[in-house]
Design goal:
Layout lengths: L5 H21 L6 E2 L5 E2 L1 H17 L4 E4 L11 E9 L1 H5 L6 E8 L2 E9 L4 E6 L4 E3 L2 E2 L12 E5 L6 H10 L8 E2 L4 H10 L4 E5 L3 H13 L3 E3 L14 E4 L4 H15 L4
Parallel strand pairs: 3-4, 10-11, 10-12
Antiparallel strand pairs: 1-2, 4-5, 5-6, 6-7, 7-8, 8-9, 12-14, 13-14
Helix pairs in contact: 1-2, 4-7, 5-6
Length: about 270
Protein backbone atom coordinates (compact mmCIF):
# COMPACT_ATOMS: atom_id res chain seq x y z
CA UNK A 1 0.00 0.00 0.00
CA UNK A 2 1.31 3.42 -0.94
CA UNK A 3 0.71 6.50 1.16
CA UNK A 4 -0.03 4.75 4.43
CA UNK A 5 -1.45 7.08 7.04
CA UNK A 6 0.53 7.81 10.18
CA UNK A 7 -2.10 5.85 12.09
CA UNK A 8 -1.49 2.74 10.02
CA UNK A 9 2.27 3.13 10.18
CA UNK A 10 2.13 3.37 13.97
CA UNK A 11 -0.18 0.36 14.22
CA UNK A 12 2.19 -1.73 12.10
CA UNK A 13 5.19 -0.61 14.15
CA UNK A 14 3.41 -1.47 17.39
CA UNK A 15 2.38 -4.90 16.11
CA UNK A 16 5.90 -5.74 14.96
CA UNK A 17 7.44 -4.65 18.27
CA UNK A 18 4.88 -6.69 20.19
CA UNK A 19 5.65 -9.61 17.90
CA UNK A 20 9.29 -9.53 19.00
CA UNK A 21 8.15 -9.95 22.60
CA UNK A 22 5.98 -12.92 21.67
CA UNK A 23 8.82 -14.56 19.75
CA UNK A 24 11.13 -14.14 22.73
CA UNK A 25 8.64 -15.74 25.08
CA UNK A 26 8.09 -18.65 22.69
CA UNK A 27 11.73 -19.60 23.26
CA UNK A 28 11.20 -19.90 27.03
CA UNK A 29 9.12 -21.94 29.43
CA UNK A 30 5.79 -20.11 29.41
CA UNK A 31 4.07 -19.73 32.77
CA UNK A 32 0.31 -20.06 32.24
CA UNK A 33 -2.29 -18.26 34.32
CA UNK A 34 -6.08 -18.46 34.17
CA UNK A 35 -8.35 -15.41 34.39
CA UNK A 36 -11.78 -15.26 36.00
CA UNK A 37 -13.45 -16.07 32.68
CA UNK A 38 -11.26 -19.21 32.42
CA UNK A 39 -9.27 -17.79 29.50
CA UNK A 40 -5.53 -18.21 29.60
CA UNK A 41 -3.06 -15.38 30.22
CA UNK A 42 0.72 -15.18 30.27
CA UNK A 43 3.34 -12.59 31.15
CA UNK A 44 3.75 -12.02 27.42
CA UNK A 45 0.15 -10.75 27.16
CA UNK A 46 0.89 -7.88 29.52
CA UNK A 47 4.29 -7.06 28.06
CA UNK A 48 2.88 -7.05 24.54
CA UNK A 49 0.02 -4.75 25.50
CA UNK A 50 2.30 -2.36 27.35
CA UNK A 51 4.64 -1.83 24.38
CA UNK A 52 1.68 -1.34 22.02
CA UNK A 53 0.10 1.23 24.34
CA UNK A 54 3.40 3.07 24.71
CA UNK A 55 3.99 3.32 20.96
CA UNK A 56 0.43 4.48 20.32
CA UNK A 57 0.44 6.85 23.29
CA UNK A 58 3.72 8.44 22.22
CA UNK A 59 2.29 9.19 18.79
CA UNK A 60 -1.35 9.90 19.63
CA UNK A 61 -1.55 11.00 23.27
CA UNK A 62 -5.03 12.43 22.71
CA UNK A 63 -6.54 9.08 21.66
CA UNK A 64 -8.30 6.56 23.90
CA UNK A 65 -6.81 3.06 24.15
CA UNK A 66 -8.69 -0.09 25.19
CA UNK A 67 -6.78 -3.32 25.70
CA UNK A 68 -7.58 -6.77 26.98
CA UNK A 69 -5.10 -6.98 29.85
CA UNK A 70 -4.52 -3.51 31.33
CA UNK A 71 -6.60 -0.50 32.33
CA UNK A 72 -8.15 1.50 29.51
CA UNK A 73 -6.97 5.01 28.75
CA UNK A 74 -10.07 7.15 28.23
CA UNK A 75 -9.97 10.60 26.67
CA UNK A 76 -12.53 12.88 25.03
CA UNK A 77 -11.23 11.99 21.56
CA UNK A 78 -13.50 10.39 18.95
CA UNK A 79 -10.63 7.99 18.24
CA UNK A 80 -10.20 4.75 20.18
CA UNK A 81 -7.55 2.08 19.69
CA UNK A 82 -8.53 -1.51 20.47
CA UNK A 83 -5.72 -3.92 21.31
CA UNK A 84 -5.58 -7.68 21.71
CA UNK A 85 -1.91 -8.29 22.62
CA UNK A 86 -2.20 -12.02 22.01
CA UNK A 87 -5.33 -13.27 20.31
CA UNK A 88 -5.14 -17.02 20.75
CA UNK A 89 -3.42 -16.94 24.15
CA UNK A 90 -4.10 -20.62 24.80
CA UNK A 91 -2.46 -21.58 21.50
CA UNK A 92 0.45 -19.28 22.36
CA UNK A 93 0.88 -20.72 25.86
CA UNK A 94 0.98 -24.25 24.45
CA UNK A 95 3.42 -23.23 21.70
CA UNK A 96 0.90 -23.80 18.92
CA UNK A 97 1.87 -21.19 16.30
CA UNK A 98 -1.64 -19.92 15.56
CA UNK A 99 -1.96 -16.64 17.44
CA UNK A 100 -1.67 -12.97 16.59
CA UNK A 101 -1.36 -9.40 17.72
CA UNK A 102 -4.51 -7.49 16.75
CA UNK A 103 -4.73 -3.68 16.66
CA UNK A 104 -7.54 -1.50 15.33
CA UNK A 105 -8.41 2.18 15.36
CA UNK A 106 -12.02 3.33 15.41
CA UNK A 107 -13.45 6.79 14.89
CA UNK A 108 -16.68 6.43 16.81
CA UNK A 109 -17.99 3.12 15.45
CA UNK A 110 -16.17 3.44 12.12
CA UNK A 111 -13.13 1.18 11.78
CA UNK A 112 -10.31 3.17 10.16
CA UNK A 113 -7.23 0.96 10.57
CA UNK A 114 -6.69 -2.74 11.25
CA UNK A 115 -3.51 -4.78 11.72
CA UNK A 116 -3.20 -8.51 12.48
CA UNK A 117 0.29 -9.98 12.89
CA UNK A 118 1.49 -13.52 13.54
CA UNK A 119 5.23 -13.28 14.34
CA UNK A 120 5.84 -17.01 13.93
CA UNK A 121 4.73 -17.10 10.29
CA UNK A 122 5.59 -13.43 9.70
CA UNK A 123 2.11 -12.89 8.33
CA UNK A 124 1.37 -9.16 8.56
CA UNK A 125 -2.19 -8.34 7.53
CA UNK A 126 -3.22 -4.70 7.40
CA UNK A 127 -5.94 -2.49 6.02
CA UNK A 128 -6.97 1.13 5.97
CA UNK A 129 -10.50 2.16 5.16
CA UNK A 130 -10.89 2.81 1.44
CA UNK A 131 -7.37 1.62 0.57
CA UNK A 132 -7.74 -2.16 0.35
CA UNK A 133 -6.39 -5.04 2.44
CA UNK A 134 -2.85 -6.40 2.32
CA UNK A 135 -0.76 -9.36 3.43
CA UNK A 136 2.98 -8.66 3.63
CA UNK A 137 2.58 -5.79 1.19
CA UNK A 138 0.56 -7.72 -1.39
CA UNK A 139 -3.08 -6.77 -1.96
CA UNK A 140 -5.50 -9.54 -1.02
CA UNK A 141 -9.04 -10.48 -2.03
CA UNK A 142 -11.59 -12.93 -0.71
CA UNK A 143 -12.05 -16.33 -2.31
CA UNK A 144 -14.77 -16.96 -4.92
CA UNK A 145 -15.45 -20.52 -3.77
CA UNK A 146 -19.02 -21.54 -2.95
CA UNK A 147 -20.25 -23.47 0.08
CA UNK A 148 -19.35 -26.80 -1.51
CA UNK A 149 -15.64 -25.89 -1.79
CA UNK A 150 -15.03 -23.98 1.40
CA UNK A 151 -13.63 -23.88 4.90
CA UNK A 152 -15.63 -22.07 7.58
CA UNK A 153 -14.18 -21.41 11.03
CA UNK A 154 -16.39 -21.20 14.11
CA UNK A 155 -15.49 -19.79 17.50
CA UNK A 156 -17.19 -18.70 20.71
CA UNK A 157 -15.83 -16.72 23.63
CA UNK A 158 -15.37 -18.47 26.97
CA UNK A 159 -18.44 -18.05 29.11
CA UNK A 160 -20.46 -16.93 26.12
CA UNK A 161 -24.14 -17.82 25.82
CA UNK A 162 -23.27 -19.07 22.35
CA UNK A 163 -21.08 -22.02 23.37
CA UNK A 164 -23.81 -24.54 22.58
CA UNK A 165 -24.48 -22.75 19.28
CA UNK A 166 -20.83 -23.23 18.38
CA UNK A 167 -20.89 -26.88 19.40
CA UNK A 168 -23.97 -27.57 17.29
CA UNK A 169 -22.64 -25.68 14.29
CA UNK A 170 -19.38 -27.62 14.34
CA UNK A 171 -21.44 -30.80 14.12
CA UNK A 172 -24.25 -29.68 11.81
CA UNK A 173 -22.63 -27.38 9.24
CA UNK A 174 -20.57 -30.12 7.53
CA UNK A 175 -23.75 -32.17 7.06
CA UNK A 176 -24.41 -31.08 3.47
CA UNK A 177 -24.36 -27.35 4.32
CA UNK A 178 -20.69 -26.49 3.87
CA UNK A 179 -17.79 -28.71 2.95
CA UNK A 180 -15.53 -28.22 5.99
CA UNK A 181 -15.43 -26.49 9.39
CA UNK A 182 -12.64 -25.68 11.84
CA UNK A 183 -12.15 -24.26 15.33
CA UNK A 184 -8.65 -22.78 15.21
CA UNK A 185 -8.54 -20.78 18.44
CA UNK A 186 -7.71 -17.29 17.17
CA UNK A 187 -10.47 -14.90 16.10
CA UNK A 188 -8.15 -12.36 14.45
CA UNK A 189 -6.55 -14.95 12.18
CA UNK A 190 -9.85 -16.72 11.51
CA UNK A 191 -11.16 -13.49 10.01
CA UNK A 192 -7.89 -12.43 8.36
CA UNK A 193 -7.75 -15.72 6.45
CA UNK A 194 -11.20 -15.01 5.02
CA UNK A 195 -9.82 -11.70 3.77
CA UNK A 196 -6.84 -13.40 2.13
CA UNK A 197 -8.95 -16.10 0.46
CA UNK A 198 -7.51 -18.99 2.47
CA UNK A 199 -10.93 -19.68 3.99
CA UNK A 200 -14.41 -18.64 2.94
CA UNK A 201 -16.23 -17.80 6.16
CA UNK A 202 -15.96 -17.27 9.91
CA UNK A 203 -18.70 -17.28 12.56
CA UNK A 204 -17.52 -15.45 15.67
CA UNK A 205 -19.76 -15.64 18.74
CA UNK A 206 -19.54 -13.61 21.94
CA UNK A 207 -16.18 -11.90 21.69
CA UNK A 208 -15.03 -8.31 22.34
CA UNK A 209 -14.28 -5.44 20.00
CA UNK A 210 -10.53 -5.91 20.36
CA UNK A 211 -10.88 -9.49 19.08
CA UNK A 212 -12.66 -8.73 15.84
CA UNK A 213 -12.44 -5.12 14.69
CA UNK A 214 -9.14 -5.36 12.80
CA UNK A 215 -10.27 -8.49 10.95
CA UNK A 216 -13.64 -6.97 10.11
CA UNK A 217 -11.92 -4.12 8.28
CA UNK A 218 -9.63 -6.59 6.49
CA UNK A 219 -12.59 -8.56 5.15
CA UNK A 220 -14.51 -5.46 4.11
CA UNK A 221 -11.51 -4.03 2.27
CA UNK A 222 -10.83 -7.41 0.62
CA UNK A 223 -14.29 -7.47 -0.93
CA UNK A 224 -16.00 -9.73 1.57
CA UNK A 225 -19.17 -9.38 3.61
CA UNK A 226 -19.58 -8.68 7.32
CA UNK A 227 -22.87 -8.73 9.25
CA UNK A 228 -24.26 -9.26 12.69
CA UNK A 229 -25.72 -12.65 13.50
CA UNK A 230 -29.13 -11.76 12.05
CA UNK A 231 -27.71 -10.57 8.75
CA UNK A 232 -27.92 -6.84 9.42
CA UNK A 233 -24.99 -4.47 9.42
CA UNK A 234 -22.45 -5.23 12.15
CA UNK A 235 -22.38 -2.66 14.94
CA UNK A 236 -19.97 -2.03 17.77
CA UNK A 237 -22.77 -2.83 20.23
CA UNK A 238 -22.85 -6.40 18.89
CA UNK A 239 -19.95 -7.07 21.29
CA UNK A 240 -17.90 -9.10 18.88
CA UNK A 241 -20.59 -11.44 17.55
CA UNK A 242 -20.52 -11.40 13.77
CA UNK A 243 -20.33 -13.42 10.59
CA UNK A 244 -17.82 -12.78 7.82
CA UNK A 245 -17.60 -14.48 4.45
CA UNK A 246 -16.56 -14.08 0.86
CA UNK A 247 -20.18 -13.10 0.21
CA UNK A 248 -20.98 -16.08 -2.02
CA UNK A 249 -23.05 -18.00 0.57
CA UNK A 250 -23.30 -15.54 3.45
CA UNK A 251 -27.07 -15.94 3.76
CA UNK A 252 -26.60 -19.67 4.33
CA UNK A 253 -24.38 -19.02 7.35
CA UNK A 254 -26.81 -16.45 8.75
CA UNK A 255 -29.68 -18.92 8.40
CA UNK A 256 -27.77 -21.73 10.11
CA UNK A 257 -26.89 -19.52 13.07
CA UNK A 258 -30.54 -18.43 13.28
CA UNK A 259 -31.70 -22.06 13.38
CA UNK A 260 -29.33 -22.93 16.23
CA UNK A 261 -30.27 -19.85 18.26
CA UNK A 262 -33.96 -20.65 17.91
CA UNK A 263 -33.37 -24.28 18.86
CA UNK A 264 -31.61 -23.15 22.05
CA UNK A 265 -34.02 -20.33 22.84
CA UNK A 266 -31.43 -17.55 22.42
CA UNK A 267 -33.14 -14.31 21.47
CA UNK A 268 -30.20 -11.88 21.37
Amino acid sequence: MQNKSKELEVAIKAALEAGKILERHQDTEIERGVKDDKSMVTLADTESEEIIKKIIGDNFPEHSIVGEETDAIRTKSLYTWYIDPIDGSRNFAHKIPFFAVSISLLEGEDIKVGVVYNPITNYLFYAEKGKGAYLNGKKIQVSKSDQHKCIVTIAAGRGSQYLEVKKNLLHDLPQNVVSSVRDLGCTALNVAFVASGSTEGAIELGFKTYDGAAGILLVTEAGGKVTGLTGGAWQLSDEGSFIVSNGVFHDVLVEEVKKQKEKLGITQ
